[in-house]
Amino acid sequence: MKIESVVLDQWYPVATENMLVAGKVYHSQLLGQPIEYGLDENATFYATHRTTQAQLPVLMQHYTYWISLGNPPALFSIPEFQDSERRVLATVPVSVRTSGLRVVENFLDMAHFPFIHEGTLGEMPFTAVKPYRVDIENDEIYARDCEFYQPMAAFSHEGGMNIEYIYRVSGPFNAVLYKTCPLQPAKKDIVCLFVQPCEEDRSIVHMPMACLDDSASLEELRLFRQNILGQDIGILNNQVPRKLPLLADFEISTGADAISLAYRRWLNEKGVCYGTFQNA
């Protein structure tokens, strides 16, 4: 299967910084290709195509190890990961039986908060998604003026509050969420969604974060976010079709889906086919 260059020439995550053990060889898949990677005796990150034995481009950035099967450009910037005030951590990678594009779209969806994440990111009867603004800037998608009532928006915060979100889609398989930090309302926590598309309909989800919470332990923060991710797994594993439809009339959309519709148009305009459902 020939993969379009807009997908091939991208950086893809294979692990977060806390996951690799020096000297251990890890085997996985990327875009249907067998790969292996690890840290050598000098703790230098490497990656190899297991069939051709070709060395692959590698990068360590945003608390994440990245590789590419093509000729990738510079990786998008997230300066908050360099902020010494923030605590950087990541959830355990999770495998899902769906397209990586489906995973990104689910991440962008606020409407499911009260139904899937009741008690944390949402609750009844606060189900309405207020109108928000979607823009394309420097070939990235931004959704601003997003606001949602959350009963427990962070592990160390008790009581509900309206949380402001900014969504940023920085690549076909990557998104970043900037959300109000209840402990420091003038600033925002950073939650990243970096997806490793193993195959067209199977993915691994990596979620590094840069948080401002200095009262909870790293393990408590990790488990809080891991539990939220776990609640999404049932949705992701049961979506039909597993690949993301780009046809405008294939699925019913509402005003709450403005960023999802923009994401699908953006993918279509870029010529992304890998991981998409092409036939009605």
Annotation keywords:
280 residues; alpha+beta; Naphthalene 1,2-dioxygenase Alpha Subunit, Chain A, domain 1; 3-stranded antiparallel beta sheet; 9-stranded antiparallel beta sheet
List the helices and strands and how they pair.
Elements: H1 5-8, E1 12-16, E2 25-30, E3 33-39, E4 45-49, E5 58-61, E6 64-67, E7 87-90, E8 94-96, H2 100-107, H3 113-116, E9 133-137, E10 140-150, E11 161-171, E12 174-181, E13 184-199, E14 202-206, E15 208-211, H4 218-237, E16 244-245, H5 258-270, E17 276-277
Parallel strand pairs: 16-17
Antiparallel strand pairs: 1-6, 2-3, 3-4, 5-6, 7-15, 8-14, 9-10, 10-11, 11-12, 12-13, 13-14, 13-15
InterPro entries: Cholesterol_7-desaturase, VanA_C_cat
Domain Vanillate O-demethylase oxygenase-like C-terminal catalytic: 101-269
Pfam families: VanA_C (PF19112)
Overview of this protein structure:
This protein is an alpha+beta fold and 280 residues long. It has a domain at 85-277: Naphthalene 1,2-dioxygenase Alpha Subunit, Chain A, domain 1 (Alpha-Beta Complex). It is 18% helix and 36% strand. It contains 5 helices and 17 strands. The mean pLDDT is 88.
